[in-house]
Amino acid sequence: MVDLTWTVLGYTPGRFNKSEVFELPFMSGSAEESSRAFQEYVEKFAADEFREVKLIAVHTHGPGLFHTKTPVTGLESLRGMKVRGGSRVINNMLTKLGATPVGMPVPAVTDALSKGTIDGTTIPWEVTPSLKVTELVKNHTTFAGKQGLYTQTFAFSMNRSSYDKLPADLKAVIDKNSGIETAALFGRAMDEGDKVGREIAEKAKNNIVALDIAETQRWRRTAATVETDWINEMKGKNIDGTKLLSEARALIAKYQR
Length: 257
Known about the structure:
Layout: E1 4-8, H1 31-46, E2 53-60, E3 65-68, H2 75-78, E4 82-85, H3 88-96, E5 100-103, H4 109-115, E6 120-123, H5 128-131, H6 133-136, E7 139-142, E8 153-159, H7 160-164, H8 168-176, H9 180-203, E9 207-210, H10 213-223, H11 225-235, H12 241-255
Parallel strand pairs: 4-5, 4-6, 7-9
Antiparallel strand pairs: 1-8, 2-8, 3-6, 3-7
Helix pairs in contact: 1-9, 1-12
């Protein structure tokens, strides 16, 4: 139906099993660094998940965090809160943390917050301006350390038949602009967007809660069972989740400055 798509992989649950590892709690931080890692990971370990398309690049957004109507100052204050999650892995994490997850794509967040369908949302700073989130809620909760609460994954891909119909010189242009540097380009844009989004919240004098190291560690310990759940699910699909998690972490460390 289309020649090109840019989409969140988590919006199609069960389709990108190996790629889900980058959505696990506290996996990565900087979008440029994790996008480089994710691109290399997909090329090495998950290329089969994109075999039906011409993959141009994959990437992640920056650190995910909470944006809520009432402040999230610790694990206890999240309990029972209806919070939007963008994928099944993230919704599982929200459940483990005590929230009531409400799954929806990001364009639906503004309306859901306005109508009170949700009490808050998990998104990076980058997308808050376009969704008017800093106007609809006044509290934002960040975490100690380089890693965010979570990240979501994206793919920029081309219809295979549309690519195949192109002459060789135009295929070469697309090939030249595919891969890790394009992934990093998306990541840099996300990182820059995070700065802008946070600045808007600061200028609005919103309440930005920065959880300290000790409290962040509580969240990490509570969310850790999401990894176990994912590894066990992958085992049921004959996928070595333990190995993939190890490889993903090694690649994130490789590109982390």
